[in-house]
Amino acid sequence: MALSRLDNLYRQVILDHSSHPHHHGVLDEASTQIEMNNPTCGDVIQLQLVLDEDDVIQDIRFSGSGCSISTASASMMTDVVIGQPISKALELSHQFSELVQGKDVAELDALGDAAMLGGVAKFPARIKCATLGWKALEKGLIDKQATTVEQASHCDSEKE
């Protein structure tokens, strides 16, 4: 009986994030923009990030079209990565990926509401839906890191 109530609570939280997604929309002053799609089901996400000079995520927005799982997951992701440095956001993304693949995650609480999507592991076809926003985040942050390193190398070579 208690498990059924817990499942209903998780379902309600997921539906709430899907129907009323957090941080949904467009950022005009985004420092990083990414678009990704899931060719299997047609989900598409556009992600915009604002990073400060210390590479901490100051703001994040997403838009696009997707299923309930994709939208809810992106909403949950935005909640947990705001205020995080790139390294921590990438770590959270990795933990989420492990979670939805049915693996144990050490810091489950750090994922916030996204931890409720662990049940997706029972539905392999939905894993790509759940991870789409997170993969877009990873791509954007890794690309940003590469650009920062490239710019630093360019500046160092100019000094010589």
Automatic annotation (TrEMBL):
| Ranges of residues in domain NIF system FeS cluster assembly NifU N-terminal | 10-129
InterPro entries tied to this protein: NIF_FeS_clus_asmbl_NifU_N
Coiled coil located at which positions? none
Question: What is a single molecular function from GO for this protein?
Answer: iron ion binding
Name one process (GO BP) from the record.
iron-sulfur cluster assembly
NCBIfam families registered for this protein in UniProt: SUF_scaf_2
Q: What's this protein's family per the entry?
A: Belongs to the NifU family.
Q: What is this protein called?
A: SUF system NifU family Fe-S cluster assembly protein
